[in-house]
Amino acid sequence: MENKYSFQNYLYFDRWVSYWYQLREVLKLKPESLLIVGAGDGIVSELLKKYVGKLKTLDINESLKPDFIASVEAIPATNNDFETILCAEVLEHLPFDRFEFCLAELKRVVKKSVVLSLPHFGPPLKLSFKLPLVKEIKFAFKIPIAKNHKYIGNHYWEIGKKGYGALKIRKIILKYFKIKKEFVPFENQYHHFYILEK
Question: Which helix (H) or strand (E) holds 22?
Answer without folding.
Answer: helix 13-29
